[in-house]
Amino acid sequence: MGNRLTVRNRAVITIVAVVALFAAFGLSAVRWSDHIGPMAVEGAGFSVVLAALLWYFLARPAVEPLAELAQVCDKLAGGDLTFALQAGGDDEAGRALTALGRMKTTLGELVEGVNHMSAEHDSGDIDVQIDAEKFQGAYRTMAQGVNTMVGGHIAVKKKAMAVVKGDR
Q1: Which residues contact 16 (CB under 8 A, 6 or more apart)?
Q2: pLDDT tens-digit readout, 117-135
Q3: Is 143 left (phi over 0), alpha (psi -120 to 50) or beta?
Q4: pLDDT tens by residue, 44-69
Q5: What angle do helix axes 92-122 and 137-165 make, rounded to 10 degrees?
Q6: What three-state secondary structure class fits 2?
Q7: Domain contains 60
Q8: Which one of 11, 41, 95, 138 is at 20 to 30 Å from 29 when CA atoms are compared?
Q9: Does 101 map to a domain?
């Protein structure tokens, strides 16, 4: 069951457990006191304030960036590169969002390179290629692969044209 809980649900459960623990301690202290009413109200107020502080300072800063990270990953996986990212922080989620922003930029540049090459080829300039040197790793390999594939198609077309012309 633990794997099916979201970070938000885990944070809420943890806060509720801490508040319940403080409430239990407060109730046991009330048992031994003659001032049951005021102590119970103070204990309840303390528990509410504690829960709010725990959420504000511990849970919320962890939950909100993770929720944004999940949302952005879903958009990226669906091919949507139009989203805007919130500025990342120095924590793990912030660094992940910053890295995801760099990946979005790289994918956008790759898509732009393919679209530019396609438009130039459509207008008759079949020598235009994607600038593979702008990319690193698998992105460079992908750009080089597209260039090689297009170059192969162009070479076949040139051979066919030479046969038709009788240049063979």
Answers
A1: 51
A2: 999 999 999 889 999 999 9
A3: alpha
A4: 677 777 777 777 777 777 778 888 88
A5: 10
A6: helix
A7: yes
A8: 11
A9: no
